[in-house]
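re: that complex we talked abt at group meeting.

here r the seqs, copy pasted straight from the sheet so there may be weird spacing, ignore it
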Amino acid sequence: MNDEKTQEKASKIDLNRRAMPHQSPKIRRNNFDEVALGYTRELAQAEASRCLQCKKPRCQTGCPVGIDIPAFIACVKKGDFAAGIKKLKEKNCLPAISGRVCPQESQCESKCILLNKGGEIAIGRIERFLADWEAAQGKIDLPEKAPPTGKKVAIVGSGPAGLTVAGDLIMLGHEVTIFEALHKAGGVLVYGIPEFRLPKAIVARELDYLKALGVKVFTDFVVGKTRSIDELLQEFDAVFVGTGAGLPWFMDIPGENLNGVYSANEYLTRMNLMKGYLAPRAATPVKRHLKVAVVGGGNVAMDSARTAVRMGAAESHIVYRRSHKELPARAEEAENAEEEGVIFDVLTLPLAYIGDENGWVKEIECLKMELGEPDASGRRSPVEIPGSNFRMPVDAVVVAIGNSPNPLVPATTPGLDTTKRGTLVADQETGKTTRDKVWAGGDIVTGAATVILAMGAGRKAANAIHEYLTTGKQ
Amino acid sequence: MNKVIERSMIVPNMHVLVVEAPEIATKVRPGQFVIVRGAEEGERIPLSIADFDPEKGTITIVFMEVGASTSVLAGLKAGDEVLTCVGPLGNETVIDTFGNVLLVGGCYGIGSLYPVARALKAKGNRVSVLLEARSSYLIYWLDRYVPLAEKIYTITRDGSMGTKGHVSRLPDIINGMREKPDRIIVNGCTYLMAHTSEVTKDLGIPTVVNLNPIMIDGTGMCGVCRVTVGGKMKFACVDGPEFDGRDIDWKEFLARRKAYMREEAMFFRRSDAAFAHNEGKCAWHE
Ligand SMILES: Cc1cc2nc3c(=O)[nH]c(=O)nc-3n(C[C@H](O)[C@H](O)[C@H](O)COP(=O)(O)OP(=O)(O)OC[C@H]3O[C@@H](n4cnc5c(N)ncnc54)[C@H](O)[C@@H]3O)c2cc1C
Ligand SMILES: Cc1cc2nc3c(=O)[nH]c(=O)nc-3n(C[C@H](O)[C@H](O)[C@H](O)COP(=O)(O)OP(=O)(O)OC[C@H]3O[C@@H](n4cnc5c(N)ncnc54)[C@H](O)[C@@H]3O)c2cc1C
Ligand code: SF4
Ligand code: SF4
Ligand code: FES
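got the structure back, here u go
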């Protein structure tokens, strides 16, 4: 069988997955520069050479946007980087971003045939290399756009979903305008994910590219407040809603409104978008906390805990109610956090925050947990150990237990239906909502998910919008 | 970016800022606010809209210079640009036919109550206004209230105008009124709102305040503006900023309002006015 042959071939090949150069933990603890430095040309080609070029590439089935992975890897192996980036961009218009933040170990790389041998191809790193190589070439030639159609599309929200729709539709000849509530476009890519994981210059570059293609971007514009979707539809032929899942959850436990208790969104926004990490040069007020506890175990929690380290915390803790194995964060980020000295208090549940006389948090009352039976998510569920209460002294808490969609747009748009979870009802294949001429995609439809899923949803919606604009079918 | 049409100091440390914002000017309702950003690497701060002119496409803000961000705004002149001016945010003040409404304003609230007074009067309410300040020279916009209000009361700390003292004298004023107010609306510094709510609790009069917690995005994204209202967590930017002052956990609110006091002071000169605010002891408070 074909597969067996490949297996055989696999046994002979190089299983030495090339490591990516990193800033050493000691140094990067003290700066906000990017942690991973990226492959050199030699490393990228060496890694690409290990790929078996499978006839039925399993890796591709693990990529939510279906990138032709062996094809772009083959180009890297040959050293034809221009062809490689072109191949990549057929399916993914933001490879510099996905190459950095995709949870590869549970997507493309988890399906690579070499995984069970312990040597899966570092697909994300090669992808990142190609994107960075392209950027390093300097001026990127603008591709030829389709002739103008005279149709106008409004895009609400400038996260990865909105940016993808914008990029696709402008190429097809439509007029595209993005409306963004914050003062910088990019969504979570700019206000959430920190500089040390995704340099903001990369997001800015993608935006400049879109603007050069003719996309108009209005920041400081809250749809539902400054103008409603209905009002936009008076001017635009179609609207795409990509407003993300930006409403922070709290646990509804005592003491959550004490000073020093932040939502991760506030903490990260203050540091990233408002440049708190540059204080006191920047006027954004930030606190210097010595002992920070971050509640949660996802990417958002890791980003917060690692930001706290860089802001000078002597101790930065992750307080997570399941075990290390269940951490939902990207494996690489959890590892990086650990290297940087983040302390993992797993199987620990916060019960209450206790304040001092001035209303500042000073302790967390916690309970120890143990793992029980697997729950609906397939992960072993945490069970409380009665009487195991203990107190943890802290001077700041960052709550990073999740986000749900912001109700602002649905609440101000009659006919735009939502689910019980507050997400928009939209067709899986097209992103079409229950409202005439309105499509949606990304976290607003799926609930908090991933960058690549948002981009994938954007691409599908862009196709459907194009179809509507050219044929009238929706 | 929004163009500055005018910026001037109306009374010491209090500035009027008129900016070009055509979309906001046509949309805004009394009680709503904008978020403004003056410096590229600075914070975003909420400021109430004190007037608007849909025809000219402008909005007017009255702000007190208290810290880093407001000091940048205080340095603006006509022709300059404000980097961010986004809105109108928050829910509008409920305007209905209440009957007799008393508006209590201090500090920037004297300005932000003006559109509220105008709308209430247009709806057929009888409007009285109580303005509160440290001294007579800090009271502004009296001329604007004269055509709207049946009666204008003032309280000054030094007694240079109206009743001497601070807002704890409110019951005296209410008792002296021919008709008890059916509703009280308070805008201004936190202490004014907290104390008025305390006083009116005993009087049993619905008291609406326009809360002013620290905010970042103003759209429900960051949660920094959370307050406890009637025992429930609310986000002031989207659930408010208007709440019944009698339901608010003021102790918690005051503590949260002062969260960045020390950091602000480090960055900003310690002007008297800023410091009085810093301590949360706005104007009249000992
Ligand atoms: C801290 C953090 C770390 C993460 N790390 C990773 C990671 O490593 N890998 C990964 O794959 N995913 C990660 N994610 C998840 C990922 O970022 C999101 O799934 C993705 O950004 C969703 O994209 P989106 O386009 O749907 O929305 P968003 O990126 O959320 O963008 C929505 C945009 O819409 C704007 N908006 C909202 N309401 C309005 C309105 N009414 N009017 C105008 N504009 C509006 C918002 O301001 C925002 O800019 C992380 C998320 C966070 C918060
Ligand atoms: C919905 C809303 C509407 C607002 N409307 C106005 C307005 O119309 N005009 C206006 O002048 N301000 C208004 N404020 C308050 C205004 O946002 C703050 O004064 C501003 O953020 C101060 O920014 P800063 O950087 O200059 O001062 P900071 O450096 O942030 O503040 C200096 C210190 O003063 C304290 N402080 C500032 N303002 C107050 C206050 N009002 N009460 C108690 N303590 C305070 C701060 O907590 C801090 O400790 C409003 C606030 C909200 C939430
Ligand atoms: S987009 Fe993400 S999942 Fe797809 S190949 Fe690239 S890194 Fe893998
Ligand atoms: S990346 Fe892995 S699965 Fe994909 S083609 Fe190469 S060896 Fe095969
Ligand atoms: S200001 Fe951020 S949620 Fe209200």
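couple things i noticed - The first strand of chain A starts at residue 152 and ends at 156. Chain A touches chain B through 44 residues (CB under 8 Å).
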